[in-house]
Write a structure and sequence with these properties.
Helix content is about 40%, strand content about 25%. The chain is of the alpha+beta class. The protein folds into 4 domains: about 5-120, PAS domain (Beta-Lactamase), CATH 3.30.450; about 125-220 and about 245-315, 2-Layer Sandwich (Beta-Lactamase); about 330-435 and about 470-490, PHY domain (Beta-Lactamase, 2-Layer Sandwich), CATH 3.30.450; about 590-754, Heat Shock Protein 90 (2-Layer Sandwich), CATH 3.30.565.10. Strands 1, 2, 3, 4, 5, 6, 7 and 12 form an 8-stranded antiparallel beta sheet that branches. The N and C termini lie far apart (about 100 Å). This is histidine kinase. In the N-terminal section; belongs to the phytochrome family.
């Protein structure tokens, strides 16, 4: 019978280092021995050190049945253990082999049973391990955060196992590692917070950590023991992925030696099927631990992985709660359904708290609203344009904006959450650049060194500092979800504003149409009545004069001609007023800053003759500056003053008082908001308040033509002027006491009241 070893002697190079077949090294650590048994119970693999544990050599064992070497009783116990499906049991099988006591771990590798025997450990410390585990569980319930739990696990694992250093090692997305928690001897330099590159644990090693949760190296300086087999086929090998005694990669051994480590215990932390981290235990001399302690240490890993989701949820709970409160407060704002409501939204601090941002901007079709730390308008427009070019029509987030849009110079902004809100509108939250200083356990760029003898791990673990720029803190999932949720709410607000504006537009158009129809009726009336009446008079007078031309006196002719002139004059006034009214209806001037004090002085000067004839007194206080059209304001003032003079009381001297708001103030009226008011008060004959609206209708008169002359267009012109300027006009009156005309002007663009 020919025997051979299965030692893998392939040299590791830069080309194959990430594919080093560490699962089939063909050798084990020397603190135990290994036997491979076929399904037919024949010994097909055996390590070269078996004679150090029992009185049989590997050459004597290979090719024979297990019973022939170790006896039928031992064989029966072995296969009873296997048949009872205890291969994956927590405790190894305790058994006597050729007069020696062993603990045997058994696993199946393809069509082979792999038996790994170690001398039996004393179980005298089992009660202590149990007590320590119970104490740990009690303390675990008092921790809230994941970091606190990991710190407790590190301390408890070190107490249970007796290792010099215990680290909780956490991986990031690229499998770079960080020492997340640590417990170590006081005389040792702490590694807490240090980072290690992903090359320290290559992919094939991570794969084995997922398959086999516990890995033990009793003596880093061990001499590997080869595995021998019967040479009866080519490429014969044994997969040791689940082995307890499997020999370690030479590069890893050298790595540990460079760190000065004498023994290690590694426990895998698996979360959602992914290698989340490791419990890495280091000892600075040789060290082995019993199966009981191994199990207790393994339980520490289960404690962590079972609590990751819960503790991470606890860690985020307060922030999530803060976000939820901010969302509730923000959506609970009583917002007017107008575009100006975005000034209220953008100034609300809750808008930043929604996703813990440093700045935010709302981009509409004609304006950008900003709060907090934001780029310039040009940069915001560039971001939106770039996102549109990529046809992104849903939420987009990044903490490294330059990775996606390198052409954008976003100043100190590194992270964004973008969301479209419909109809060309957008909202973007921002985070600033966060410059990180990462402490690595050695230069990550020199984790593998090549020399004339091959590849070697780095031999320097001095702290190597890396400065990371051009990125913000990572957006958490709950922050992204909250941003999306509010973006949908904002979209609804946009839609409500649009619907309200459409409704207001249709309402205004309906009102204009109604007023226009009413005006047409009045114009029709004036053209059929007020204009016909003086025409009839002219016709009657001239007909009578022609029929009595020979007998009528000169005085009678003069009187008749005077009456004709008066009728013609009245017709001219009516036609001029109709022309004025039409002119106001079609005036579309550009509003400009207008000094009302100047307009009032000019108006009073031009009306000085009629004011003097009426013996009237005009009192006025300082008037504000408003955005208006100067010639319309002059006509407005003139018509109001003329109206007060026309309807002055014969029993007292006419007094007109003009008062005004001295500072802009919010004045809400139906769907509109005004900032300035001016009031003309007189002591004339007044009017019944029930006519307060009808007096502004074209050609409406409250008194007959014989008592008070006029066409009834004056106040209608005033209303049309204020409508043209975006303002309003109202009248109040008391019969026999006087009247008040109040006009309202809209807010200036510079006003900050809204």
């Amino acid at each position: 019978m020919k025997i051979k070893d299965i030692v893998n002697r392939e040299i590791v190079t830069l080309t194959n280092c990430e594919n080093e077949p560490i699962h089939i090294p063909g050798k084990i650590q020397p603190h135990g021995f290994l036997i491979g048994i076929t399904l037919g119970r024949k010994i097909d693999y055996c390590t070269g050190n078996i004679a150090e544990f029992v009185e049989v050599t590997y050459t004597e064992a290979l090719g024979k049945s297990f019973a022939a070497v170790f006896g039928s009783s031992a064989e029966q116990k072995i296969f009873d253990y296997i048949d009872e499906d205890k291969i994956k049991d927590a405790f190894p099988l305790e058994i006597d082999l050729l007069g020696k006591s062993f603990q045997i771990s058994i696993h199946k590798s393809l069509d082979m049973y792999v038996l790994e025997a170690e001398p039996l450990f004393s179980r005298e410390k089992l009660a202590d391990v149990y007590t320590q585990t119970i104490e740990f569980v009690t303390q675990m319930n008092n921790t809230k955060s994941l970091k606190d739990l990991c710190a407790l696990v590190a301390e408890a694992t070190r107490e249970i196992t007796g290792y010099d250093r215990v680290m909780i090692y956490r991986f990031d997305e690229q499998y770079n590692g960080e020492v997340f928690a640590e417990s170590c001897r006081e005389d040792l330099e702490p590694f807490l917070g240090l980072h290690y590159p992903h090359t320290d644990i290559p992919p094939q090693a991570r794969e084995l950590y997922i398959k086999n949760l516990l890995r033990l190296i009793v003596d880093v300086g061990y001499e590997p023991v080869p595995i021998f087999t019967v040479d009866d086929s080519e490429n014969k090998n044994l997969d040791l992925s689940f082995s307890v005694l499997r020999s370690t990669s030479p590069i890893h051994v050298e790595y540990l030696q460079n760190m000065g480590v004498g023994a290690t215990l590694t426990i895998s932390l698996i979360h959602h099927g992914r290698l989340w981290g490791l419990i890495a235990c280091h000892h600075y001399s040789e060290k082995n631990i019993s199966p009981d302690i191994r199990l207790a240490a393994k339980l520490q890993g289960y404690f962590i992985t079972s609590q990751i989701d819960i503790r991470q949820s606890n860690d985020e709970y307060l922030n999530v709660q803060k976000t939820a409160v901010a969302f509730e407060q923000l959506t609970g704002l009583d917002l007017p359904l107008v575009s100006d409501s975005f000034d209220i939204i953008i100034s609300a601090p809750q808008l930043l708290n929604i996703c813990n941002a440093a700045g935010v901007s709302i981009i509409t079709k004609d304006k950008i609203y900003k709060s907090g730390l934001t780029p310039s308008d040009e940069q915001i427009e560039a971001v939106v344009e770039s996102i549109n070019d990529l046809k992104i029509n849903t939420i987009f987030s990044t903490n490294k904006i330059r990775d996606h849009f390198p052409e954008i110079d976003s100043a100190n902004i590194a992270g964004i959450i973008y969301h479209p809100v419909g109809n060309g509108n957008h909202i973007i939250w921002y985070r600033p650049e966060t410059i990180l200083e990462i402490n690595w356990g050695g230069d990550p760029e020199k984790s593998i060194i090549k020399d004339s003898t091959g590849l070697h791990p780095r031999n320097s673990f001095e702290i190597w500092k890396q400065i990371v720029k051009n990125q913000s803190s990572v957006w958490k999932e709950y922050e992204i979800n909250a941003a999306a949720q509010y973006a949908h709410s904002l979209h609804n607000h946009f839609m409500m504003i649009m619907l309200t504006e459409e409704e207001e537009k249709y309402r205004t158009q309906s009102e204009i149409l109604r007023e226009t129809n009413s005006e047409l009726e009045n114009i029709n009336w004036i053209s059929t009545h007020d204009l016909q009446e003086p025409l009839r008079k002219i016709q009657l007078i001239t007909s009578k004069m022609m029929s009595e031309i020979n007998v009528v006196s000169i005085d009678s002719i003069n009187s008749s001609l005077q009456r004709v002139s008066n009728s013609a004059s009245r017709m001219r006034v009516l036609l001029e007023d109709i022309l004025k009214y039409t002119r106001i209806k079609n005036t579309k001037g550009v509003l400009e800053k207008t000094d009302l004090n100047h307009i009032l002085r000019v108006t009073i000067e031009e009306m000085s003759e009629v004011i003097t004839e009426s013996n009237a007194v005009i009192e006025s206080e300082n008037l504000p500056e408003v955005h208006a059209i100067s010639f319309l304001i002059k006509q407005l003032f003139s018509n109001i003053i003329q109206n007060s003079l026309k309807y002055a009381s014969p029993d007292r001297t006419p007094v007109i008082k003009i008062t005004a708001s001295q500072e802009p103030e919010i004045i809400k009226d139906k769907f509109k908001v005004y900032c300035y008011w001016i009031r003309f008060s007189d002591n004339g004959i007044g009017f019944d308040q029930k006519y307060s609206e009808s007096i502004f209708k074209v050609f409406t008169r409250l008194h007959n033509q014989q008592e008070y002359t006029g066409s009834g267009v004056g106040l209608a012109l005033c209303k049309k002027i204020m409508q043209t300027l975006g303002g309003a006009i109202y009248a109040e009156g008391k019969v026999g006491e006087g009247s008040e005309i109040t006009i309202y002007f809209p807010c200036d663009p510079e006003d900050s009241l809204l």
